[in-house]
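Table S2 (continued). Query chain:
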Amino acid sequence: MNIKEKMKGIKFYNANSPSMKLLRNLSFILIILTISSLMLHIHQYSTINAMKDRNQFLKNELNKFTLKNPSIEDLHKFLSNDNTNQKDRSNWDCKDFAIMLRLNARKNGFNMCVVLLEVNYVIKSVSRDKEYWAPSTGLETINGAILDNGTFVYIDPQDDQIIRFDRYSLELKLLEKNNDALVAAIINETHIW
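Corresponding output:
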């Protein structure tokens, strides 16, 4: 058998035929798509890593401005260094002291609120040379803070005293501040953070 007869069953394609040109072009297109896809993935990877770095930077920057709940020791130290309670009491009232203490706490990175207390008092009054006890309502302004252990405490901004979070302790403090009162009962309490 000669070579022509052996090759009779094999079909040869013309290298210049349209189907062979298309096959060569598809291979070239596939190579370009693969390289483009690889370049896109590399770009996305570098972008994601850059975003992670930027995100960590932003987290670090925001943490500088995040207020924290102080420990009882941090609160005592802050109050001993703060000079709010040394302001002239003739020009300031309780709300001025409370607002200033809150601002100073925030400057030091501590979260502190202003507490508005509506209080019913029974006070000693004098009328026509007779003493009697009469009801009276007053508004007191103090501060409050949540400690790092989750405990809430009141703070008297005028004398830096920390008061436990219970009505009895707070009402006792209010009686100390108002010498003419026999009874002090809190009827409304508002916290402004």
